[in-house]
Amino acid sequence: MVSEIQLDDGQLEAILNDLVEVYGYDFTDYSRASIKRRIQRLISVDKPPSFAEFRFRLKTNQEYFNRFVEQITVNVTEMFRDVSFYQTLRKDILPVLSTWPLIRIWHAGCSTGEEVYSMAILLQEANLLSKSLLYATDINPSVLEKVREGIFPMNQMKQYSENYILSGGRKDFSSYYTAHYDSAKFDEQLGKRIILATHNLVSDRSFNEFQLILCRNVMIYFDKELQERALELFDDSLEALGYLALGAKETLKFSSVSLKYKQIENKERIWRKMK
Amino acid sequence: MDTQKILIVDDDTRNIFALKAVLKSKGYSCISAHGASEALELLNDHQNIGIILLDMMMPEMDGYETISTIRSGEKKHLPIISITAQAMVGDREKCLDAGADGYLPKPIDVDKLLDILKRYLK
Amino acid sequence: MSNKRSILVIGGSAGSLTKVLQLLPYFKKEMELAIVIVFHRKDTDDTTLVDVLSKRTEWKVKEAEEKEVIRPGVIYIAPTDYHLLIEKDLTLSLDYSEKINYCRPSIDATFESAADAVGESLVGLLLSGANEDGTKGLKAIKKCGGLVVVQDPATAEVSFMPRRAIENVPVDLILQENRSEELISLLINHSREML
After folding, report:
1. In chain A, residues 125-144 whose CB comes closer than 8 Å to chain B
2. Which of these ranges, A128-132, C2-6, C162-166, has the smallest mean pLDDT?
3. Is the bond into B107 cis (omega within 30 degrees of 0)?
4. Which of A195, A203, A208 shows the shortest C-beta gap to B87?
5. What is the CATH number of domain A9-73?
6. CA atoms of A107 and A77, how far apart (whole Å)
7. What pLDDT is stored for residue C76 in this prediction?
8. Structural domains present in chain C
9. pLDDT value at position A3?
10. What are the structural domain ranges in chain A?
11. Which residues in chain A are contacts of C79 at CB distance < 8 A?
12. Do C and A make contact, counting contact as 3+ CB pairs within 8 angstroms?
């Protein structure tokens, strides 16, 4: 049996540097343990004959690079994941957002869009969708295509439906999509208020001002400095009295921006910008 | 005499405010639009727009589509400068390929912007 | 802070909590040691587990936090539904990728990342459980110069996990019932070698 190539630190560095030089994608500030695992996994799936060949292919083949980015950055996600978070959005956050004439929401690192469509449903049920704009960005252009289509695997619908109900949803979840063989296509009305764009949290700047920014389970893959820079970018893009929502185990309390923010009462990972 | 106006298209009001302020202080005259459809209307109504500063990431019609629409209409020779928050290699080329005459990353380097305006406006 | 300090990484599934509670009183404050525990768990309330363990030890017990630095005298518990990784600079990282061996947190994920990051500083301890999570991780720890301890399958509540490990990995100590001091001696000696 051919033994699998075990990536060492030198090789990891080489690849990360190649990516910056050739493609302008800088992963050098990502958490090393995590990215090393993901690349190692890609190697064990693709089984390149040698590291040199793997490196060469990555450097010279754009399509392989795209696959690489997908494997390294795409996050596993579910609709209405973290029931208490969506409950809080529904009961506490949305009523405050409704006071704005136009609601802008940024889903940073939206992946395949489950979170975005969950938000669209929440807004629809609160009668706020028509005055909202949902900006969904991700580093990965191919993943944005999926968001545009609004198509999710049919076999996930049962789980999503359960999550939806547990988070306070009262309608028939299946009324939001139509079934096509093994896919569920979500209502186009939900998709109409979603704006898609590639955006790289490492290198790109603020592009607008929002009342709610969600970046959940994305920054855990960044190292500390990059987390800090990302939080500053979010702070730069958030209106006063707007909300920043992070993942279940994420926090901004160690960041320099924390002084401007207050965590909401029920201790969900949502902070309000106070000044 | 009809001085040429600058059309700023951006859905971020902070940018419009900031840009207008700077350009006014340099003696330029600006009008603004929050989105592509508004921009296209203004293009029809105003005959003395000399250049467009166009944000690439906007709702409804994004920057690329907007450039395409302008390039196939009456004002097809109008100078268009892409303004974008995206910094990656390849971004500049993408904008120029789409038909932009120039590219400025955010935050805007005012000196670079002024050079561009001197070049394209009378 | 020297990067060479002793870290005990414990992995366990069904039946492992009782063993951990049994071991806790043996860990004395003076030991230059940090402990990271990965329990397979359903969506249980994270704070109850911390409370239950806190009652049995003078050490601080807490849920592992993103980018937190591992310090001696503290017991870190992997949070539910995330993989817990250890970085070279002794910080903890959370990861939400797909389940491994149907588990998240996965013991292999923690053991492997720890082995890669701080290899010889590690003592890996695998306890009772019903699946094969942990064996690969122990192999990695051994390969990177750490020590491997496995609970005696004969006295583990569920023997599958530890037995699997013993069959596949050269073990430095089999932790037998009522022989907890052996583990402590091993840890103390290891710690001495590190400093």
Report:
1. 133, 135
2. C2-6
3. yes
4. A203
5. 1.10.155
6. 13
7. 97
8. 6-194 (3.40.50.180)
9. 66
10. 9-73, 83-273
11. 249
12. yes
Spatial contact of A114 and A79, defined as CB atoms under 8 Å apart: yes
Residues of chain A contacting residue B12, judged by C-beta atoms under 8 Å apart: 207-209
CATH code for the domain of B22: 3.40.50.2300
pTM for the full predicted model = 0.91
Task: Return the residue of A nearest to B87 by Cα.
Answer: A204
**pLDDT digit string, tens, across residues A165-179:** 999 999 999 999 999
Using CB atoms, pick whichever of C79, C81, C117 lies closest to residue A33: C117
- A208-266 per-position pLDDT tens digit: 999 999 999 999 999 999 999 999 999 999 999 999 999 999 999 889 999 999 999 99
Q: Is A69 helix (H, G, I), strand (E, B) or coil?
A: helix
CA distance A247 to A249: 6
Question: B59 lies in which domain range?
Answer: 5-120
Question: Measured between alpha carbons, how far is A15 from A13 in angstroms, rounded to an integer?
Answer: 5
A76 SS3 class: coil
* Chain C positions in Cβ-Cβ contact with residue A221 (cut-off 8 Å): 95
pLDDT digits (tens, 9 = 90+) for C99-141: 888 899 999 999 999 999 988 989 999 999 999 999 999 999 9
- What CATH number has the domain spanning A83-273? 3.40.50.150
ipTM of this complex: 0.89
Q: Which of the residues C7, C95, C112 would you substitute to probe the A interface, choosing the one with the greatest number of A C-beta atoms within 10 Å?
A: C95
Torsion sign (Cα): A243, A246, A252, A256:
negative
